[in-house]
Amino acid sequence: MAVTAQMVKELREKTGAGMMDCKKALVETDGDMDKAIDYLREKGIAKAAKKADRIAAEGLAAILVDGNKAVIAEVNSETDFVAKNENFKVVINDILAHLLKQAPKTVEEVLAQKMESTNTTVEEYLNNAIAKIGEKISLRRFEVVEKSEADAFGAYLHMGGRIAVLATLTGTTDETVAKDIAMHAAAANPKYIDRTQVPEAEVKHEKEVLKQQALNEGKPEKIVEKMVIGRLNKFFEEICLVDQSFIKDPDQKVGKYVAAKGAKVASFIRYEVGEGMEKREDNFAEEVMSQVKKD
Question: Is the distance from CB of 161 to CB of 61 less than 8 angstroms?
Fold first, then answer.
């Protein structure tokens, strides 16, 4: 039986599953709507789709390093309770292994790729995990990084993956030094490596704010410019990694510490789970009660 667009639309409305999943279900069941619904339920896709509008702002950030390649990723869940679940951790490890091997560029590209270990797409794999675990699970972001044999990766996880930092240092193969930088970035949360990376528009805006602050304090205009320069240096110290005081030795800057090791910070990626996302307002007790009421 030929599968029409209207049939796909009807199945989507009944199950909430994706268009391609609905089309596949109808093809597999020769256009039988009821069997197609069962097919999606059996695959866990219908159940997963119903959770698509849930907020998943918990989860874990994780890192996998293999030789000269490394990947950092954030995988979200709805609750911190599930983020501590061993099944959820298996999902993260499987996703990390796939990302490291395939090195895709976007989340959309990842979801469409086949996973060798399961012979399903990553999207199907996640849907199956959602059906098993019972919460919305999503790959939010990732980055694959490569280095040379003469460089070093530094990987650091804070609170088991609440914050993850992957740092890359050139000029050294000392992973301890690189991990020190990753640990510092986790704690100090810099936005840039150095001043050259700060957008000119951001610097200009900060100068205007600082100038107005000084004028509002009643400072003479002739000394305002000098005050702005001093305060701007403080601004750079807050947002630039190499200008920050090193957490292990506050008497020296990160840049000086790295330079003393003959190294240079090439990059750092810092993921904090759920940053910039809307958080769930309900708690675990309320979630349990809502399930009891349904039963």
Answer: yes
- Say which DSSP state 267 is in: E
Number of Cβ atoms within 10 Å of the Cβ of 285:
8
Phi, psi of 244 (to 5 degrees): -80, 155
Enumerate residues 6+ apart whose C-beta is below 8 A from 138: 56, 75, 76, 126
The Cα–Cα gap between 223 and 228 comes to 9
Please check whether residue 36 is in contact with residue 14, taking contact to mean a CB–CB distance below 8 angstroms: no
Half-sphere exposure of 63 (CA within 13 A, CB side): 27
Residue 51: the pLDDT is: 60
User: Could you tell me the two tokens for 70?
Assistant: 């490394």
Helix axes 5-15, 19-28, angle to 10 degrees: 110
Q: Is the pLDDT of residue 287 over 60?
A: no
- Residues 153-175: tens digit of each pLDDT: 999 999 999 999 999 999 999 99
The closest alpha carbon to 96, from 137, 58, 27, 142, belongs to 142
